[in-house]
Write a structure and sequence with these properties.
- The chain has 512 residues and is an alpha+beta fold.
- The protein has helices spanning 2-42, 58-62, 66-76, 97-104, 112-115, 119-122, 131-141, 147-150, 153-172, 181-197, 207-228, 235-240, 242-270, 272-280, 286-292, 303-334, 336-350, 365-377, 410-413, 433-436, 457-474, and strands at residues 80-85, 89-94, 178-179, 383-387, 392-393, 399-400, 405-409, 475-479, 487-490, 492-495, 500-505.
- Helices cover 55% and strands 9% of the residues.
- β9 (487-490) and β10 (492-495) form a beta hairpin.
- α16 (303-334) packs parallel to α21.
- The protein is globular and about 90 Å long.
- The mean pLDDT is 92.
- Bound molecules: protoporphyrin IX containing FE.
- The site of protoporphyrin IX containing FE has 23 residues, from α16 and α21.
């Protein structure tokens, strides 16, 4: 009797549970449909490429060449178009300077999708925060990028680069092309760890950093795939899939690395001698500021906030510069005449010295123009997203209400032929001072623009100049025609098959 009663109540419980799940699912569906309706109504005055009823434009976005697909759409829809990822997530995709200015000169918050997808990894750091908390953190961290702090980093960038170049010297002996992306990544991470996290010199590719590097690689790929796969937008579904579990495993590896970095610096701070050294420094580095200072209102960062900032800077500070340096070297290999001119300039600046000094960086005029042209054609961050906190009116009279989602397609903006004649042509003179004068300030946005621009842009520009200058002194770069890179958007601009280049050592007096 008891087992029968027990099994009856179990089956009733099962029925109730399935009913509840169905009801919750139904409620969720209604919410999603209402959201779709309001996003679609908001974008009424904008058309777009034909959409699939279920996938929207997601299938096109998943294809190789999706970045160039968007560029082809910009010819049909000159200012902006609707972009649907699945049935419920719709952005207004913009790529015109006045449109970009209308949104990006304001401080609207980041769009929940996709930034919420990276929260379990980088937490609520500067990249995703908004409102007073963002302002407070930005103010706290800005001094870490003061030029007095950046000055000594020139030597650090040079030392990490030399370690990479020594490795390349070995590889070049085989007279075969090789993928430079991964080596550049380890070098950029090493530089960042030394500059902002106080790592001591100890060579590239430590196993701890290697695992972190690979974890970040997986996290960016997985996040991009999650954005493009609408079923994965739902947390409940995502965490149940093998994809979601891989994401959590990679997060764990990244967090272990971050925790270790924080622990080591905290331990060093216990040491009275180390503390005195820090107090005597006029400018504190990024981690000193996070660990030691309190802002004017005496608000100290919680452990979670501190870890979020470390995770944010660790990711933003190396993956972006890796992409920037790798694509720049690809451009140099592709356009040897510009490569020669840059090398000549660097040789002239150095004279008989073998390392750069701070003042040299402002003399690298041609190299800087080539770097900017490479950022135009291969922006390391090709797409950024916002959610409007108030309505916006665009120059052509169209508008969007609060709550609308915006995707700024930096890659397409930089190929907008109304600003950039012959956009596919690599022409560094676009960035000569005469040609820059009069150009729309929102036409070139590799570091975004407005209040939420990149806090690390000066750090990044310095690093790219030092690293590429030294690379050009040591090697001649040529393409491997059998392995052209396949552009791939993984939050950051990467290549599906790496960036394979042939390197020819330039012999003595080459900046060793
Ligand atoms: C060539 C290299 C770099 C490029 C192209 C780049 C690009 C960008 C872009 C486009 C944004 C805006 C993101 C958005 O709106 O979602 C951004 C924000 C940010 N970047 Fe960079 N970045 C680079 C290097 C760095 C470095 C070296 C650091 C740190 C050391 C850094 C730290 C950040 C942070 C913390 C933010 C968020 C700023 C805020 O919202 O206040 N970036 N970056």
């Amino acid at each position: 009797m008891v087992p029968i009663l027990f099994s009856m109540s179990l089956s009733r419980l099962g029925l109730w549970a399935s009913g509840l799940i169905l009801a919750l699912g139904f409620l969720k569906l209604i919410c999603l449909l209402v959201r779709r309706q309001s996003l679609a109504r908001a974008m009424d005055s904008f058309t777009g490429p034909p959409t699939h009823w279920l996938f929207g434009h997601a299938l096109e976005m998943q294809q190789t060449g999706s970045l160039d697909k968007v560029v082809s759409w910009t010819h049909q829809f000159p200012y902006a178009h609707q972009l649907w990822i699945g049935p419920f997530l719709g952005f207004l995709n913009i790529y015109e300077p006045d449109y970009a200015k209308a949104v990006y000169s304001r401080g609207d918050p980041k769009a929940p999708d996709p930034y919420d997808f990276i929260l379990p990894w980088i937490g609520n750091g500067l990249l995703v925060l908004h409102g007073p908390k963002w302002f407070q953190h930005r103010k706290l961290l800005t001094p870490a990028f003061h030029y007095d702090v950046l000055k000594p980093y020139v030597a650090v960038f040079a030392s990490s680069t030399r370690a990479m170049l020594d490795k390349w010297e070995e590889k070049a002996r085989e007279h075969k092309s090789f993928d430079i992306f991964c080596d550049v990544g380890h070098m950029a991470l090493d530089s960042l760890m030394k500059c902002t996290f106080g790592k001591q010199d100890g060579g590239l590719g430590h196993s701890r950093e290697s695992s972190y590097y690979h974890a970040v690689y997986n996290l960016t790929v997985l996040t991009q795939q999650r954005l493009q796969e609408f079923l994965y937008h739902n947390d409940f579904i995502y965490w149940l899939t093998p994809h979601g579990r891989r994401f959590l495993r990679a997060c764990q590896v990244a967090h272990d690395h971050t925790d270790q970095v924080i622990r080591e610096r905290k331990a060093a701070l216990q040491d009275a001698k180390e503390q005195a050294k820090i107090q005597n420094r006029r400018h504190l580095d990024f981690l000193d500021i996070l660990l030691g200072t309190q802002d004017e209102n005496e608000i100290k960062l919680s452990d979670a906030e501190l870890r979020a900032e470390v995770d944010t800077f660790m990711f933003e500070g190396h993956d972006t510069t890796t992409s920037a340096i790798s694509w720049f070297l690809y451009c140099m290999a592709r356009y040897p005449e510009h490569q020669d001119r840059c090398r000549e300039e660097v040789r002239e600046i150095l004279g008989d010295r073998d390392s750069f000094q701070w003042d040299d960086l402002s003399k690298m005029t041609y190299l800087t123009m080539c770097i900017k042209e490479s950022f135009r054609l291969y922006p390391p961050v090709p797409q950024v997203y916002r959610q409007l906190s108030k309505p916006v009116n665009f120059v052509d009279g169209r508008s969007l209400p609060a709550g609308s989602l915006i995707s700024l397609h930096i890659y397409a903006l930089h190929r907008n032929s109304s600003v950039w004649p012959d956009p596919e042509v690599f022409d560094p003179l676009r960035f000569s001072s005469e040609n820059v004068t009069g150009r729309h300030p929102f036409a070139f946005m590799p570091f975004s623009a407005g209040p939420r621009n990149c806090i690390g842009q000066q750090f990044a520009m310095n690093e790219v100049k030092v690293v590429t200058g030294l690379c050009l002194l040591r090697f001649e770069f040529a393409l491997d025609p059998s392995r052209p890179p396949i552009k791939s958007l993984q939050l950051i601009l990467k290549s599906k098959n790496g960036i394979h280049l042939q390197l020819k050592p330039l012999g003595p007096n080459s900046g060793k």
